[in-house]
Amino acid sequence: PERPLVAPRTPTEEALAAIWVQVLGIDEVGIRDSFFELGGHSLLATQLISRVRDVCHVEIPLRNLFDTPNIADLAKAVETLRWAARARQRPAHLAETEREEGVL
């Protein structure tokens, strides 16, 4: 049975959906759809990761796509990497109350 199409909810999910549509050559994609069930394979996966790097400015390991082959989970990984990059750019002298906490 077909699953209902779940539209992107965040700007990151929207950006990833646009990349998937372009790389896979399809008309639309839901955030719960599997990259590989939509026709993705290892060569397209490397193209997708390259475009994610260009658009989202983060380096996602190719393994992440195999472990989390849907937009919803990949968007979480992108946001976590963005958060970590921002945290590395903050000055070390910030007070503990000014620092963000999160799970990597």
Topology (SSEs and partners):
Blueprint lengths: L10 H14 L17 H15 L5 H6 L3 H19 L15
Helix/strand order:
HHHH
Low-confidence stretches: none
Residue share in helix: 40-55%
**Rg:** 15 Å
What does the largest sheet look like? none
Mean pLDDT: 88
Structural class: mainly alpha
Question: What is the terminal-to-terminal distance?
Answer: 35 Å
The coarse overall form would be globular
Instruction: Estimate what percentage of residues fall within beta strands.
Output: under 5%
Number of helices: 4
- What's the count of strands? 0
Characterize the structure shown.
There is one protein chain. Helix 1 (11-24) packs antiparallel against helix 2 and helix 1 packs across helix 4 (71-89). This protein has helices spanning 11-24, 42-56, 62-67, 71-89. It is 52% helix and 0% strand. It is mostly helical. It contains four helices and no strands.
Short description:
The protein contains 4 helices and no strands.
Keywords:
4 helices; mainly alpha; 104 residues
